[in-house]
């Protein structure tokens, strides 16, 4: 669980802090009418640095497991404005002139750096590629494909489970390349403007994307088999190459980052028309996710059918939630008294999620 600091607006209007971390993974919510304590694997309070979240959440281990061939997922959830995007990507910069300070980079950039470092030193033969999808109004769209967004079919097969047909995946070998990819994905139709102005549009796009749709960035980590046979001083010409008994078999893991759209009360935000349809779709898919998590949290013997098919989101996350994946869930909350009911609901949701076990 991560608690963000009170924002300037919250401080100025005199909101009180009602959430306190007690250490040892416990968190205390207290108001005149509520008094509740919750326990989690880790609690990061308002003063926690991005680096401490990366190290303390198990994110580094998750990266290593992905290299080892596991399907790993991290997702951030919580109400709009609770710090999901900040946790995953860091603060949004408004212009190229002031990029985010390295210390503020989020779990994603830190994981990319960790992966690239491993591919250079620890595990040669790693090939990295990325795909980036969003679920908007119950449609799966490819954020990497050029041109206007079009919906891709979501299918199921016995061997692959749920998968998206025809999704693009792009190889990358450097931090700049993956950063560019993200930026390009978030700003698919750049106006003919230079540098900083283009960025600004993308920052707004990011805001829209992260709050009005669910975004799933998947890094595919392929490790080619490393030969265990005798080493040749001079490489053999390609046609004469004979496979050696491999000491290290080829492996394919994934690392998926999910920035969920925040829950929203249509009544409170006064959304209407298109916005209202969006909000209803967001709420419906979050409800489906909550429902699957509640059922998965029951002991295996008492479980009924898990309705993954209720939404695109739960279909795409089926493996991460109850299958063979390894999943880190980061619940983001605001400490403000005004957010109390959403905060309590996020904490209850997170407590249920904590009881879910997968079989990696
Ligand atoms: P969400 O993605 O959940 O809607 P954001 O990540 O956009 O929320 O965060 C909302 C605001 O709060 C942003 O201005 C962000 O920079 C700020 N914020 C969130 N978490 C933190 C944090 N841990 N430290 C400092 N500022 C934060
Ligand atoms: Mg966001």
Automatic annotation (TrEMBL):
InterPro entries: Kinesin-like_fam, Kinesin_motor_CS, Kinesin_motor_dom, Kinesin_motor_dom_sf, P-loop_NTPase. ATP binds at residues 78-85. GO terms for molecular function: ATP binding; microtubule binding; microtubule motor activity. The keyword Nucleotide-binding applies. This is Kinesin-like protein. One of its GO terms (biological process) is mitotic spindle organization. The keyword S-adenosyl-L-methionine does not apply. It comes from the Eukaryota. It comes from Nyctibius bracteatus. Residues 1-356 form the Kinesin motor domain. Belongs to the TRAFAC class myosin-kinesin ATPase superfamily. Kinesin family. It is found in: Cytoplasm, Cytoskeleton. It holds the Pfam family Kinesin. One of its GO terms (cellular component) is microtubule. Keywords: ATP-binding, Cytoplasm, Cytoskeleton, Microtubule, Motor protein, Nucleotide-binding.
């Amino acid at each position: 669980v991560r608690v963000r600091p009170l924002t300037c607006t919250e401080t100025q209007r005199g909101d009180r802090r009602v959430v306190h971390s007690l250490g040892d993974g416990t968190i205390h919510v207290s108001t005149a009418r509520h008094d509740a304590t919750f326990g989690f694997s880790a609690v990061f309070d308002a003063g926690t640095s991005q680096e401490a979240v990366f190290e303390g959440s198990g994110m580094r281990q998750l990266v290593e497991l992905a290299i080892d061939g596991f399907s790993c997922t991290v997702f951030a959830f919580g109400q709009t404005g609770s710090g999901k995007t900040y946790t995953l990507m860091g603060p949004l910069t408004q212009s190229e002139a002031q990029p985010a300070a390295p210390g503020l980079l989020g779990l994603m950039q830190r994981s990319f750096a960790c992966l690239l470092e491993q591919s250079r030193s620890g595990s040669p033969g790693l090939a990295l590629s990325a795909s980036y999808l969003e679920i908007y109004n119950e449609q799966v769209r490819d954020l990497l494909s050029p041109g206007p967004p079009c919906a891709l079919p979501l299918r199921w097969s016995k061997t692959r489970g749920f998968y998206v047909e025809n999704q693009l995946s792009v190889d990358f070998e450097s931090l700049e390349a993956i950063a560019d990819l993200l930026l390009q994905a978030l700003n698919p139709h750049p106006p003919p403007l230079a540098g900083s102005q283009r960025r600004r549009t993308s920052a707004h796009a990011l805001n829209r994307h992260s709050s009005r749709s669910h975004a799933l960035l998947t890094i595919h980590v392929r490790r080619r088999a490393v030969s265990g046979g005798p080493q040749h001083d001079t490489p053999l010409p390609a046609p004469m190459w004979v496979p050696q008994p491999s000491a290290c078999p080829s492996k394919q893991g994934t690392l998926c980052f999910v920035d969920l759209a925040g829950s929203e009360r249509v009544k409170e935000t006064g959304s209407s028309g298109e916005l209202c349809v969006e909000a209803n779709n967001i709420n419906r898919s979050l409800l489906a996710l909550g429902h699957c998590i509640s059922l998965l949290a029951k002991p295996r013997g008492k479980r009924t059918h898990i309705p993954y098919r209720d939404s695109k989101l739960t279909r795409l996350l089926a493996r991460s939630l109850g299958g063979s994946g390894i999943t880190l869930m980061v619940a983001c909350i605001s400490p403000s008294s005004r957010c109390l009911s959403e905060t309590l609901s996020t904490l209850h949701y997170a407590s249920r999620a904590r009881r879910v076990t997968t079989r990696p």
